[in-house]
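Exercise 4. Each item below gives a protein and its sequence. For each, produce the structure-token representation.

Item: DUF805 domain-containing protein (Erythrobacter fulvus).
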Amino acid sequence: MEWMILPFKRYVDFQGRWRRKEFWMFQLLNILVGLLLVTPAIILSPTSSSSDFDSQGDGFSASADFASNFSESPIALVLIGIYALYALATFIPSIAVTVRRFHDRDMSGWWYLGFIVGSALPIIGLLIALGLLVVMAMPGTPGSNRFGPDPKDPFSEDVFA
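Answer:
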């Protein structure tokens, strides 16, 4: 649990390195909170019927009906609101954790912006998003790098300085 809360203590710290364990535990916390709040909201919201779709099939009226379905269930609306506040509160720590994870790979944090912009591209966006996942799963560089000492090496002279 300590690894899940640590990014909130280092809220806007974009310096240093971050281990894989710390990164993935924070991502696990985000997934668990999302499942805990969004799944009951979807279950508690009234379901839409096939007549909700418009005759043109473009889905615009269906999305409006989907939003109105949540307003019919106040509990679901509150759960979605709480999740929206949580997502807003974790926006900057998520960026900071990812940048520090790039630092552990001895990559600049600006790579993250490149991955985000690249994943928005229509055809190759999915491949770029998978590339980001692969980079986050790769081990950090052993020993010190330009962003700091190795966080996995407790005997490094720079860790206690």
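Check: The helical segments are 2-9, 20-44, 60-72, 74-89, 91-104, 110-119, 125-137.
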